Amino acid sequence: MHAAGRTLPQLLTEARRWFEEALLATMEEAGEAPVSPAQVHLFAVLGEQSTTVSGLARRMGVTRQTAHQAVHGLVAAGLLEQVPDPSSGRQRLIRRTARGERAHRRAGLILQQVEDELATRIGHRAVDALRAALETPWGPPPVL
Fold first, then answer.
1. 68 contacts 55 by C-beta, under 8 angstroms
2. Domains (range + CATH), the chain
């Protein structure tokens, strides 16, 4: 453990939470539909292609039930929709609605502004170094 007492995973989790809180507060202030952190994460991993609830659960690293709850809330908010999967009669695909696409683009712009604010607070060089470290391939997780 580091001398400060917090591990790097704890610090990364806190940093992610800081970005999420800024995003959610800014979107709420702008009158966007309120969403939970789990729903924000789902939206972030959805990508441009439609996918199933099971596919979303794998990408999010959560149970299918957790992903289903997040999807259900975003469908109710009009941000996602479920459509029949043409390759499977039993499955349904999840995709953004037009309103969901607008919210996704807005969230991307807000996150860029939040990153710019972080650079103002801690310095552009620090943010650039952080980005470079996180974008560098780390290889497979070690077994120690």
1. no
2. 8-135 (1.10.10.10)
| Residues sharing a CB contact under 8 Å with residue 34, sequence separation 6 or more, in sequence order | 24, 28, 77
pLDDT tens per residue, range 91-130: 899 999 999 888 888 888 999 999 999 999 999 999 999 9
To the nearest 10°, report the CA torsion of 9, 10, 15, 16. 70
pLDDT of 1 > 70? The answer is no
The residues near 73 (Cβ < 8 Å, ≥ 6 apart) are: 35, 36, 39
Q: Which amino acid is at 66?
A: T
- Strand segments (E) across 2-129: 80-85, 88-96
